[in-house]
Amino acid sequence: MGMPGRADDHRWSQQHLSHYVEGDLSPHARRRLEHHARDCADCGPGIRAMRALVYSVQGLDGLAGVRAPATIFDRVRAAGASGSPSLHGA
Ligand SMILES: [Zn+2]
User: What does the domain layout of the chain look like in residue ranges?
Assistant: First the structure.
């Protein structure tokens, strides 16, 4: 596999994952990152991880304007009450 610039693409993609998830990239840059992430074992999962991270941060930040995820709080409360994850059926 002698694709020139592939290592550069990977480094560039890693540096731009957060910008990509935040929608901060130009359409051209988004395409470049998507194209690379499609067959990169690091950047594909990296996008999903970064997206989860960014969304959780934005969720905390935007609680005033966004409906609170009640089920998440319920789950956190339930986990705190039982002291450990319930393993006997749900
Ligand atoms: Zn990569």
Answer: 6-79
